[in-house]
């Protein structure tokens, strides 16, 4: 079955906005086909091949070197149609025209090769954007539509419900009933925190469950620091966050990238207005007020924010085959991250030629790239370590200088004392040498080793005990050597008090250093063409009437281009940014976006399932001051979000993909949520926030696990005790591009290449095998069993009931209790026959059969769909 995106693209190509017309026109029906297959050679080049330019119909009628390309009304006699039909053109087999597209071309020529309107007299070098292309939904201004009236007003908690219910009612359906309180609390906590809820949270809401109590619960969870950890992870996906450079197999570590991760978490927890969040990430360095060598704490945060533009793979810190290509690849990936995350457009498709589907020219791409080039100048490139900004302040440097002066006093005393000890020891050894050699020996000892004469060297070879040095002093006088060592340690201790050198991985411009941006012919940096000025997308400028991005700011020492871009993207007239952001938020709450292709609002992307709702949410988001938590409250207070999982066969037949939102969507937990929930349920979760990442390492069989390898242990697999650091939330675990954590990779943790626009969960046998055999899961299951026994001692039924509430967040049924007890009894009997579970003489059994049976039951529960999916 073809996806809705492909169907939408074919509809656009075959019929465009004029599908209802009785006869085809060039602009709406045929131009898209030629743009996709032919413009590459017959429209984009300065000199079209064969002298034939297919961008205007009158040029086709005139023709090129071979004569007229088309004869109106006569497709069989039209040279262009003949070449397409025979597959002589396009010459590239992978770009051959499809039968359906060929039929449209034939029909258009047969109907007279008509245009929808008079064609321009000339095109020159300008990129032609047709009225049909400008009319695409995503380029239209964001307008707040009226909230529709519905038949069942009692189903409407807020405007979101009205927009969704309208479509359901059109087909004779309503929302599904509300989910049970237990399922709602679990769904809400997983949505906002990425953790299984505490049992008391479920119990508290069960006891009340009113609308006001629901709002209080939502507010309580939004106020928790866990909220930023959960929603920060979503943003880090689209930002391409990684703790390593990628690009090559070396995959060097990024020891300071974590400051950007912490910035993102804090921004979400502080509910930073999203327009400000965007501005700081694009241009935090242009917002700071303190100097780079004496940054205030607020400005450190602003510089940390620019880590957004330093997340792309960057291999320029090491050896690469083509350093210029590596530099330009980093810039290209940065442009992709920015455009896909903030504009939901596939801008990268125009890197080598005009976009084949969307109205984005090759020049548009390089105009957009020009915004970043003053900071990412490929010809005056800075390697990753050259872009680090020290966080030490002037006060830190003064303190360090004072401490260093103290340490140097000790160093001087050490040097003086060392000289005394060496001289005294030398004099003792000199007494063992004939007196007539003393003068020569003293001269040799006083001379530097490299400057000794042949005669001086000879005496030291004959009497090696005379060669008393700082390195050999301990051989003669252990007490003196120990005294010097102690003094040296004192100096080291003094120096250890210096403020530690810290850095931030940032993007900055050099004032006055503004490179010239040129279009790269076919994307090849070795073929620069015309100079270009910074700009946004032409189609957006034409449709929204936004002011252009200036090449140089009048009030900043830097160009200010990135700050201007931030203002441009968050202008209420910009049609893409707010829509892209609210669509992503919707996707994370409902499992799919209102536009199910969150990084592609273009022709090949899906059409919005509810365009009016998307615009209403975007307008509401802007008018709320880009308030993210306000957007959460709206969605979470809707009846649509609180529905039970859809179980309506009639509705499912009409709407198999649940695009009408007639019930909740069953969703698999994400990789990080699985790991973090396991830690929370077992009671092991370390709540420590922020700071350098928890390292990962290969275990003895090559799986990547959390841990720090002890390379000095002399045996593979030896680890250093992490002191609980390994039990922190997954967002703090190192994201090493070449070392994805095995547990999370199995559950579809994305690879950042360069970013992740949308997670795509899979279902495969490897996941089940991991849940059955993973040492980590077995360990977690035993920890949970220990917790159950500690919290409900000597009462098996209470232990089982607690297990159900911890893992499933609901009470267990009577039948489940009977089955669980029978399972444990059978397993205890089986285990009891094994030596490890039997007492050895006076010694008690090494293991408890009852506790191990309970642990196995916990593993079964954790491996079940009820735990791994959210309802």
From TrEMBL:
Residues 159-374 form the DUF1549 domain. InterPro entries: Cyt_c-like_dom_sf, Cyt_c_Planctomycete-type, DUF1549, DUF1553. It holds the Pfam family PSCyt2. Keywords: Signal. This is Cytochrome c domain-containing protein. One of its GO terms (molecular function) is heme binding. It comes from the Bacteria. The lineage of its organism: Bacteria, Pseudomonadati, Planctomycetota, Planctomycetia, Pirellulales. PANTHER family: CYCLOINULO-OLIGOSACCHARIDE FRUCTANOTRANSFERASE-RELATED, F-BOX DOMAIN-CONTAINING PROTEIN.
